[in-house]
Amino acid sequence: MTGVAVAGAGITRHGFFPARSWKDLIVEASLAAVADAGMDLGRIDGGMVSCTLPETFEQQNLGAVTADELGLTPVPFGQLVGACAGGLMAVQAGIRMIQSGAHRCVLVAGVEKQSDTTTTADSMLSYVDADFEAAAGFDFVDTMALMHARYLQVHGTSEEAVAAFAVADRWYARHNPVAVDTGRPDITTADVLDSGWVSKPITRAACGRACDGSSAVVLVAADEVPDAPVIAGIAQATGPNGLAAKFGHPGYDGDIVRALPTAIAADSAYRQAGIGAGDVDVAQVHDCFTIMGSLHLEGLGIFPAGKAALAVQAGETALDGRCPANTDGGRIGLGHPTGTTGINVVVESVRQLRREAGVRQVRDPEVAVCQAMGGNNSTSAVAVLRRATGRSRHVGAE
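Now predict its structure.
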């Protein structure tokens, strides 16, 4: 156990808001998290800010600027960049601040403002290796498309099964009032497959929705808020970034259809929490594309290798399924403001453990797992959250 709990969580509506500044968004989410914790800003004695693409709104040193906007100076605030995993890595950094004994109440916030860039695709060109993939004309979507195609080839999975992830995401998202897809009708696998190629075999509807948004959590020493969800384990791992390096890496068994950093981070987080994959009641995984959602469910050990897409298609991640997943709508349905995505998954886990998710509420969850990927499947962070009272009904079971 980390000895750290999530006292409060806040999130803004996700979408495109060209008239709003990143400061507006991060202040809204931060104040919501502090209010949710039932405290005032004066309790915050440290902070971390995650943002993947601050160059889109021409600002760096976001930690200090955020502290100033919230009226928290001279409280120490830092900025952390870890691609799309940065939000969860910032949560890990906030935990370490409390564990060090130097802090008792830390605000961790993420923000992204994709509407400030020319195109969301252009803003992510630097995610691939600049010396290899980018130089060869590959962008981020192309590398994921190769993983998608290879998954189909290796496991014999159908396109319909992989597309089912977007269908499941949409159902959850339309019931989430802060999601990009809130209130929109359900979609079918045919809708996903017929939405036009982005980079074959990835279609438009199979992509995460780059957008504006912010979220925040308030972390405190667990003994201060005994009724708050506890972060029972958290870890981050890295792997090779280049596709060629993945093929040659022994940990990948000579292939690219394995979420190796997720598997390594999950093993560490599970050991810290004293659980196994079978103890997980609800999961939030990184689905920047449908294929990546399935790969990370496998990396977490929730489904065997090559079986996650079929499990999603069979309804095993639906609300009444074996392990409901991406109950906020995921990156495809909620939206994917990259710098805050790793905090979004914590916010949704907290909502689920506190039984506050409304129509999306999973029945009696005790253990929640959340995961965020960064870069070309080259880094992953995993956190295990437990409900404050009681133990998982699975723990100790054979």
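Confidence is low (pLDDT under 50) at residues 390-398.
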